[in-house]
Amino acid sequence: MEKRKEKILLCLCHLSGNEQKYVQEAFDTNWVVPLGPNVNGFEDDLQKFVGEGKEVVALSSGTAAVHLGLLACGVGPGDEVLIQSFTFCASSNPITYLGATPVFIDSEKDSWNIDPDLLEEAIKDRIAKTGKTPKAIVPVALYGMPYDIERIMEIGNRYGIPVMEDAAEGFGSRWKGRVLGTFGKYGVLSFNGNKMITTSGGGALICEDKASKDRILWYATQAREAYPYYQHEAIGYNYRMSNVCAGIGRGQMTIVDEHIRHHQKLAALYAELFKDVEGIRLHANPDKRYDSNYWLNTITIDPSVRVKGQENAYKTVVTGVVGGVASVIHAVDNPTTDCQPNDNVEALRVGLDALNIESRPLWKPMHKQPVYKNAPAYVNGVSEALFKVGLCLPSGPYVTEDDARFIVEAIKELIVR
Ligand SMILES: *Cc1c(COP(=O)(O)O)cnc(C)c1O
To answer: How far apart are CA 348 and CA 390, in angstroms?
Structure first.
């Protein structure tokens, strides 16, 4: 096959709304600080999107939203937080920023998200072992797929543990018709350049009422007391969203429904194209309660599938960046680790890359990350097994239906039959 001239990227937001108008307004009125009409307007748009009765705070990143949500749940030094292990590090790192310990919970097979049975088992065991109740439960909408929020909320309520939903990848996904991020005490959204919509970099926290929004706002603006001079009685953060960035967000909100539909349309097309490809399965809504935004479409590849070049997988160290556009990565000496995707998955990634198609392994579970080797984990093998067989495929607004056909054809050609 001829390789594509332009790389088909995994997921890149598209500034196809009237972003420029709002950003220009910020320039024209010199509103260049982390507050202003765009910040208020963006928050109003988000509030409308998530529905009645919720309040939204715009922040400088999704990671900042995770951090402040946990803080507001009362997480502090020596505490434990129950969190889905199958996630990106931004879900769990802020737990350590607060001096607390993540307790990783494995996933259920169908949704790939936090297993409610294992969650309850972990709660009982933590209480028995430490004498303390964990401070928060964090389910994650991995690749946009909803978690079984009904069971998670029921368990959280029964043990008196607040739920903070990490819907950073699941903006616009729904559980029984209701938008994710609106069930728990807090809900995290991300507007990084590769998420469902972007503010170039940014995030938001969905709060249950005005009082909890005000508390988050206070923490996000350096925790100032009402005096004519700077007086501080708590440690705050500089986490508010810039008025310039919020202008991009307002423009993106004018096309968000269209973008979500595009991701979902690609999912339906991938499903049709992969229908008869033996050994490959597309991840899809387990049943009618789940309504994924399909932020990223993902496949699993049976270990029996042979891929061209498989014998050379992991022979050389990666020098470019996998998993980030403009990042700094540490050089490594050894091309392998003790837990990595199967050779056929890596060969498929390399083969697609040669055709200018970006793909990426599933997120490596946090309980398998060296940095978290001492954290408690309640494991059933599901996320580790998925990590070894899974691959994320291009899914963003730049990916056309023709691109999806090209990608599936490329995968079929790379498989040895
Ligand atoms: C992207 C992401 C975040 C954090 O968002 P940023 O805006 O990049 O800080 C948090 N959790 C998950 C699961 C994510 O994918």
So the answer is: 11
Contacts of 143 (CB under 8 A, 6+ apart): 112, 169, 283, 292, 294, 295, 296, 297, 298, 392
DSSP state of 328: -
Residue bearing the CA closest to ligand 1, atom 14: 168
Q: C-alpha distances in angstroms, 289 versus 49, 262, 286?
A: 20, 20, 8
| Model confidence pLDDT, tens digit, residues 182-227 | 999 999 999 999 999 999 999 999 999 999 999 999 999 999 999 9
- ∠ CA 280-284-288, nearest 5°, is 150
Q: Which atom of ligand 1 is nearest to the CA of 192?
A: 7
> For the segment 113-143, what is each residue's pLDDT rounded down to a tens digit?
999 999 999 999 999 999 999 999 999 999 9
Amino acid (one-letter) located at 199 = T
pTM here is 0.96
Cα–Cα distance, 243 to 25 (Å, whole number): 10
**CB-based burial label for 274 (10 Å; 0-12, 13-18, 19+):** middle
Q: Ligand 1 pocket, 192 CB below 6 A?
A: yes
